[in-house]
Amino acid sequence: MATKQHCAYCFSVLIAELQGADSRDIKPDFDVDAKYPLFVTWSKKHGNHSRDNDDDEQLRGCIGNFAAMKLGTGLREYALISALNDSRFTPIRLGEIPELSCSVSLLTDFEDAENYLDWKIGEHGVWIEFKQNGRKKTATFLPEIAKEQGWSKIETIDHLLRKGGYQLTITSEMRESIKLTRYQSKKAHLSYVEYTEML
Asked: Where in the sequence is the signal peptide annotated (predicted)?
């Protein structure tokens, strides 16, 4: 289960890194040897909003790994990669920290879907494999994405294909050729205000 302690650790790691300290010196207060595939997401608030509401935030970075990783090393690694190396965004700066929230998603219950529609919006994350010019490509959305965006299943698949780099016209035949894996996620969310209250 993802917890606020996991998110707080990510905050501490990022702050240490941006201040020039060694983030490896930070001691987590959770089971560092538990293994999960995981994603770390950083988001930035829009104006005034409830500190527990993550629906009104803009994405600042989201990267993870589908291989099961020890939480101690995995969260440290992806807290920094998602904050500083997500190619879609500029690296997070120290001055932004008070405006940020962190989410940790631990991925579970991976299942091969029968087809590209064999999953439920809001319940399943989807990971697709497809081929373009003979090369295998992949892309994923966490379980909350389709619901947050108001997408249908087909719209979600089409956005995933574009995210994965597919540039040709998307046909029903293309969608049917996809190998889809569905999964679930245990997610925790923590604002910077909540983080400071935990110190």
From this structure: none
